[in-house]
Amino acid sequence: MAIITISRGSYSMGKAVAEQVAACLGYTVISRDLLLDASTRFQIPEIKLIRAIHDAPGILARFSRSQQAYLAYIRAALTERVRDGNVVYHGLAGHLLLKEVPGVLKVRITADLERRVENERRREGISAQEARETILRDDQQRRGWTRSLHGVDPWDSNLYDLVVRIGALTVADAVSFICEAARSEGFRATEKSLQAIRDLALACRIKAELVEEFPALGITCQYGNAIVYTRDKSAGGDRLHKRLDTLGKEIQGIFNLEVHSSEDWPPDAV
Amino acid sequence: MPIIIISSEAPAVEEQIAARAAKALGYKTLGPEVLPAIAAKHAIPEAKLAESLGRTPTPWWRRQAKGRQQYLACLEAEVLDRLAPDNIVCWGLAAHLYVLGVSHALKARLLPDNARLAEELAGQRGVTPHKAAKLIEGARLKRSQWSLAAFGQNELEPSMYDLVINLGQIDPDEAVGALTTAVGYRKFQPMTYSTSSLADIALAAKVKARLLGSLSDIRVQARDGTVVVTSKALKRERRKKTAAIKSLAGEVPGVNYVEVHLINYVIRAAAESFR
Question: Most buried one in B24, B105, B139, B189, CB count within 10 A?
Answer without folding.
Answer: B105
